[in-house]
TrEMBL record:
PANTHER family cross-referenced by the UniProt entry: CERAMIDE GLUCOSYLTRANSFERASE
Membrane topology: Multi-pass membrane protein
Localization of this protein: Membrane
Record GO cellular component, one term: membrane
Protein name from the UniProt record: Hopanoid biosynthesis associated glycosyl transferase protein HpnI
Length: 381
C-alpha cells in the first residue's frame, strides 16, 4: 500500500511539474523584455538593511544605482554595530558613485528578536521619499527594476509590490547548488502558485509601498518578533483590502553559501519559516518533488517504480531547462538536478522537526506560527 501511494503521488507530482513548466514558459519567457516599461521620475528611497561582509555586496548594491530611472533615488543603508564590515562596502559605494545619494544609519537599538526589523526601525526615520522599496542585501537588480516596481505600485488597488527572484551562485560549488534550488524548485513553484491564484507571497527580494501604507499597517515595529516578516507585511497589506502585486524574476539572489553545512542551515531556516506561516501549503509542496517520491515507490515496486523515476526525471529536467531559458540564467549544470532534488527533499522532511534556526550566526527559537525568541547573538563578519 505505501508503495502505490508513493507511486500515485509521484505521478501527480510529475503532472504538476509539466504544468508548471508550461505556465512558466507562457508567463515569463517574453514578459520581461528590457525597455518595455517607460522610465519613471518618481522619488524613491531604497532601504538596505546590512549585516556583515557578504560576497559581492558592493556589486549587488551598485545594481540599484545603475537604473534606467529619471527621478531622485536615496539609497539608505543601515547597520547595528559600528564595527560591522558592511560599513566599508557603503564607503566604497560612495567613492564609486560620488553623485549618488547614499546614506548610512548606525544604530544599535533593538526593537525585538529580529535584527533585520530592528535595523529597519532605526533606518526609517532617515527615509526622505514617499515611495519606500525594501530589498535584501544579497539581491542584484535588472536595470529596469525601478521602472517596473514603480509602475506596478501605481496600479489601482495595489498596496505593495513584491517580486520573484532567480538564483545565481557566487561563492563556489555549494552556492551554485543552492542557487539551483532557487531556480529549479522555488521559482517555478512560486510562479505557478501566483498564476493559479493559489499563493499570495510577499518576499524580501522586494517590498515596495508608499509610506502611508507602511504607517497604516503599524510600521516595521509591528513585525519585530516575526521570522517571516516579509510574509507578515504582505498579509497586513492584504488585510486592509489592498493587493500585493507580484512581479516576475527581475532580481537575482546571490547565493553565498560557502559549504554544505551553511547551505543546509539556510534552507532549513527557510523551510521552517514557510512551514510556520502556511503549513498546509508547505505540506502540499511535496507534490513538486516527484523524483524522491518515485524513488520511494521503486523500493516497493521496482519495475513500475523505475519507469516512474525515468518519467519524473524527464519532467524535472524539462522544467529546469524551461526556467533557465526563460530567465536567461543557468545556475548550475543540469546533471546536478537529481542530487538537488534529493537534497531539497531531505530539507523538507527535516524542517518538520526543527525548533531552532540559525540566521547569520544568530541562534533563534521558533515559537507559535513564525514567532521568534533570540537565544544567542554573534558579531557580524
Amino acid at each position: 500500500m505505501p508503495g502505490w501511494a508513493l507511486m500515485l503521488m509521484a505521478a501527480l507530482g510529475t503532472g504538476y511539474t509539466l504544468a508548471a513548466a508550461w505556465v512558466f514558459r507562457a508567463r515569463y519567457r517574453t514578459a520581461y523584455v528590457p525597455g518595455a516599461v517607460p522610465r519613471s521620475n518618481a522619488a524613491v528611497t531604497l532601504l538596505k538593511p546590512l549585516y556583515g561582509a557578504e560576497p559581492r555586496l558592493v556589486e549587488n548594491l551598485a545594481t540599484f544605482l545603475e537604473q534606467d530611472h529619471d527621478g531622485p533615488v536615496q539609497v539608505l543603508c543601515g547597520v547595528q554595530r559600528a564595527d560591522d564590515p558592511a560599513i566599508l562596502a557603503v564607503h566604497e559605494l560612495k567613492v564609486r558613485y560620488p553623485d549618488a545619494r547614499i546614506d548610512l544609519v548606525i544604530d544599535s537599538t533593538r526593537h525585538g528578536a529580529s535584527g533585520k526589523i530592528s535595523n529597519l526601525c532605526n533606518m526609517i526615520g532617515s527615509a526622505e521619499h514617499d515611495i519606500l522599496i525594501l530589498s535584501d542585501s544579497d539581491m542584484a537588480a535588472d536595470r529596469d527594476y525601478l521602472a517596473r516596481v514603480v509602475a506596478a505600485l501605481e496600479a489601482p488597488g495595489v498596496g505593495a509590490v513584491s517580486c520573484l527572484y532567480r538564483g545565481h551562485g557566487e561563492a563556489g560549488f555549494w552556492s551554485r547548488f543552492g542557487a539551483a534550488g532557487i531556480a529549479w524548485q522555488f521559482l517555478p513553484s512560486a510562479a505557478f502558485g501566483v498564476a493559479m491564484g493559489l499563493a499570495r507571497p510577499c518576499m524580501g527580494s522586494t517590498i515596495a509601498m508608499h509610506r502611508a501604507v507602511l504607517d497604516s499597517i503599524g510600521g516595521f515595529a509591528r513585525f519585530a518578533d516575526i521570522l517571516a516578516d516579509d510574509y507578515a507585511i504582505g498579509e497586513a497589506v492584504w488585510a486592509q483590502g489592498r493587493e500585493v502585486a507580484v512581479l516576475g524574476p527581475i532580481v537575482t539572489h546571490g547565493s553565498a553559501e560557502g559549504g554544505l553545512g551553511e547551505l543546509w542551515r539556510h534552507e532549513l531556516r527557510w523551510g521552517a519559516t514557510v512551514r510556520g506561516v502556511v503549513p498546509a501549503a508547505y505540506v502540499s509542496n511535496v507534490m513538486s518533488m516527484p523524483l524522491p517520491l518515485a524513488l520511494g515507490a521503486a523500493a516497493f515496486h521496482p519495475a513500475v517504480g523505475l519507469a516512474m523515476v525515468a518519467i519524473a526525471c524527464a519532467a524535472r529536467f524539462l522544467l529546469a531547462a524551461t526556467v533557465d531559458d526563460a530567465t536567461g540564467l543557468a545556475p548550475a549544470p543540469l546533471w546536478l538536478l537529481p542530487w538537488r532534488d534529493l537534497f531539497g527533499f531531505a530539507v523538507f522532511v527535516a524542517s518538520f522537526f526543527t525548533r531552532k534556526i540559525d540566521w547569520r550566526g544568530n541562534h533563534l527559537r521558533l515559537g507559535a506560527g513564525s514567532g521568534l525568541t533570540t537565544l544567542t547573538e554573534t558579531a557580524p563578519q
